[in-house]
Structures are given as structure tokens and as C-alpha cells.
Design brief:
The chain is 24% helix and 34% strand. By secondary structure, the protein is of the alpha+beta class.
């Protein structure tokens, strides 16, 4: 995708921190005046020419530096602005000089994210801001366009910004130089790594658990559309007691039907039983990757899929919540949220489950993805299953749940973390 092309020098108000940096001083003017006076006194053509040359060079250099930013364009261009972890993205830097005046030197210091290396290029990282810098030197002739290509290694999930850029140039004699901050930024979104069904070792049929018979209607007990006579197959929970007392006959509730099967993913970003104990970064990344893989699998099966996570976006303390949908941009939006999610857990996953599950459609399959399966979480899953909700648990814990989980489909995925030998624990 092409970045924005921004002219330099035509509209100075677009720039911030615009300033001049010059090696010129008043000594040169004083020297020219002294040489002129001496030349007049002794009638020396040589000193007159020398004084005139100094003044001409100074004026020419000043005018050159003043015009150096005119017609100068700089842009970044990514081959893709969205990529998956492990891929490489080509970054093209382009400088275009649209004027007769050449640029004998042009220094560009571009701000790059420190977390993404550039192949065969050493980035200088500022330890105070944790922002890397890519320094490039250019010599651009009249009406010349120059390009340089770099490969960005997408080794970490996340949302990354490129820019602003510090641009400096000047006259060829080094008398005057000008510097400007080009406050134009580009972004690169890196999705989590996605696993295939074979990688997850899931059954090719019904990976989200046993499906209902085709054409079978789900009924939502939160949406009552009427009453009817009680039947022997009805449970006591279905009896409408107020209507029964009023009509002096046993009556049952009629619930609103729903034919559509949906998948609602619940992501637990915590890797310890209590999120304030710290987190294991690589284990958390694997959990996020499993969540993205399940979302992709649901989209392939044309199932409406949504996401609720107890993680937050950068700079926010609100949890992620995306309602199920099957639109063309649903999976992209979901993967973008997973790319942005931080390791900060807003609340325990079991509390979020018990609060959000009643709001979900009755025919939705509640899929919980977690690195750990502690007692409180398993108790919440059992409560949901007893209430009639379809629950599927994906866990990357070292040991599978030992507790009996009636009506809950459990997938234990320890093979995805077998290579994590003594993972580092990061304390909060």
C-alpha cells in the first residue's frame, strides 16, 4: 500500500520543530569587509575578487539551503500493511527531487519500532523511548527519484507505527543546513500466528464439539413469545406459573427459536491463576494464536464468530468485545483485536464468562481458550453447562483438567507448548 506523499518546504506550517542549523558565522562577513577595505586602500584586484567571491559563495549557499526543501518528497511504502507473525514485509523508502537544484547531501533519520528488526540493517535504539532509528544518506540529482528497499521481519504480534522522520540537508559547501520534522506516520499490523486443524489436532468434523441435527431449532429461554398447554416432555422450568394460576390449567412457556449456530470465543490472557502474579509472554502468545486459529476455522465454516477477552487494548482498561458476525470484514476485525490485545487482564475470566454468557444467543457455542484451567474457571464452565449452554474448553495447561466436566467438550493442547522449556516469568 502506498504511503502519503508529502512535499517539503512548500508549506512550512505543516512541519513542527523546523529550524536552521548553520556553520556560517559573522566572521565571514567581517572578513569580506576587511578584504574589501584593504583592496581599496592598496588598489588590489586580487583582494577585491577574493572579497567578492566570499560574498557570492555565502549568498549562493544561503539561497541553495533555502530552496533545498522545495519540491522534495519522501514516502514509505509497505508491500503489505497487514501480515502474520513469521512473515517478511518489503518496505520501500522513496525520495523524489522535483526541481533543477540537486541535493548533494540528504540525511533522513526515520523512527522505527524497536520490536521489528530490518534484515541486513542495524537499527539504533533510543533506550529512553525504546524507539529505533533508521539512518539513510542520499544524494539526489535534479528531477531524480531514488528508492531503497528493506525487508522487515515480522517476528512479534502487534500494531507498529513508523515515523516521524527527521530530514536535514543544505548547500554543498556546508555553510548552511536546514532541518525539519516530517510528522507523517505509517502503520503495520502483525496478526498472531495461525495454526491449522492438523496443528491443533482437532477432528476434521465438528471441531467445536458435537453439532445439533440439521434443521433443529435452538430456543432462547430469555425470549418468551407466548404460552401453550403443558406437555409431558416439558420440564418444570418451562412451566409458566402465573399463567397457570390465572387460567387454572398447566401452561408452558414458548421460547423464540433460533436456527443459527454461532461461535463466541472467550480468550483468557492470564497465564497464572491470578493475573497479578505475572505472566509468561510466550505462553500467552500461543493462547492468542489458538484463539485466532479457531476464529479462522469458524469463518471457513461460515459460522458467525465473535470474541470476548479479558485483555485490554493499548492505553485502555476496557476488555475486548466483538459480537458474532459473518460479514466479510469480521475475521479481519477479530484478528486486528488479537494483534492489539495486551497482557493486562481486566478481570478474572470466570467472572467475565458468567456475566457475558447470558447475553449471548442461546444457540451460540461458548469456546473458552486459556493457558490455565483452575478450579474457579472449571466451576463457572460447569454452571454454564448445567444451565443448558454449549461449552467447549481449549487449554494449553501442562496437565488436563482432572475434574469431571459433564456436557463440556475439552481439548487439551500441550503439544503446542512442548518447546517452551522453563519459560521466563515476567512479574508485573
Amino acid at each position: 500500500m502506498f504511503g502519503r506523499i508529502i512535499p517539503m518546504g512548500r508549506r512550512p506550517h505543516r512541519y513542527i520543530d523546523t529550524q536552521k542549523d548553520t556553520q556560517f558565522s559573522d566572521v565571514w562577513i567581517v572578513l569580506a569587509i576587511i578584504l574589501t577595505i584593504i583592496a581599496l586602500v592598496i588598489d588590489s584586484a586580487f583582494l577585491t575578487a577574493a572579497a567578492t567571491l566570499i560574498l557570492v559563495v555565502i549568498g549562493f549557499s544561503w539561497l541553495w539551503s533555502r530552496l533545498s526543501f522545495a519540491g522534495l518528497y519522501y514516502q514509505r511504502r509497505f508491500s503489505e500493511i497487514r501480515a502474520f507473525t513469521g512473515e517478511n514485509v518489503e518496505l520501500t523508502l522513496e525520495v523524489h527531487n522535483q526541481k533543477v537544484l540537486p541535493l548533494t547531501w540528504l540525511n533522513i533519520v526515520d523512527a522505527f519500532p524497536a520490536g521489528l528488526p530490518v534484515r541486513d540493517k542495524d537499527l539504533q535504539t533510543n533506550p529512553t523511548t525504546n524507539i529505533a532509528e533508521l539512518r539513510t544518506f542520499w544524494m539526489v540529482g535534479p528531477f531524480q527519484k531514488m528508492r531503497r528497499r528493506f525487508n522487515v521481519e515480522c517476528i512479534h504480534r502487534g500494531f507498529y507505527r513508523y515515523g516521524p522522520a527527521q530530514v536535514s540537508t543544505g548547500d554543498p559547501f556546508g555553510f548552511f543546513s536546514r532541518r525539519s520534522t516530517l510528522d507523517v506516520q505509517d502503520r503495520l499490523i502483525i496478526y498472531p500466528r495461525l495454526y491449522t486443524v492438523a496443528d491443533l489436532r482437532l477432528p476434521t468434523r465438528n471441531p467445536f464439539g458435537e453439532t445439533r441435527a440439521r434443521g433443529r431449532l435452538f430456543e432462547d429461554p430469555l425470549r418468551i413469545v407466548g404460552i401453550r398447554e403443558w406437555q409431558s416432555s416439558d420440564s418444570l422450568q418451562r412451566v409458566h406459573w402465573k399463567a397457570t394460576a390465572r387460567h387454572q390449567a398447566l401452561l408452558s412457556r414458548v421460547y423464540e427459536p433460533s436456527e443459527e449456530q454461532q461461535v463466541l470465543l472467550f480468550l483468557n490472557v492470564a497465564t497464572m491463576e491470578r493475573h497479578w502474579h505475572g505472566h509468561i509472554p510466550e505462553l500467552q502468545e500461543r493462547t492468542i494464536s489458538v484463539t485466532g486459529s479457531l476464529a479462522s476455522l469458524a469463518a471457513e465454516q461460515r459460522l458467525p464468530v465473535g470474541l470476548i477477552a479479558n485483555g485490554a487494548l493499548p492505553g485502555s482498561d476496557q476488555s475486548l468485545r466483538l459480537l458474532p458476525g459473518r460479514s466479510s470484514g469480521q475475521l479481519v476485525r477479530l484478528l486486528e483485536l488479537l494483534a492489539l490485545v495486551t497482557n493486562f487482564a481486566t478481570e478474572p475470566i470466570e467472572q467475565m464468562l458468567l456475566r457475558e454468557a447470558p447475553r449471548a444467543p442461546w444457540g451460540a457455542t461458548l469456546v473458552v481458550v486459556t493457558a490455565i484451567a483452575h478450579t474457579d474457571l472449571l466451576a463457572a464452565l460447569i454452571d454454564l453447562s448445567v444451565a443448558g449452554r454449549r461449552v467447549v474448553l481449549f487449554t494449553l495447561a501442562e496437565e488436563p483438567p482432572r475434574q469431571f466436566l459433564p456436557g463440556i467438550t475439552v481439548y487439551h493442547l500441550p503439544h503446542l507448548v512442548d518447546d517452551l522449556v522453563a519459560p521466563a516469568l515476567v512479574q508485573l
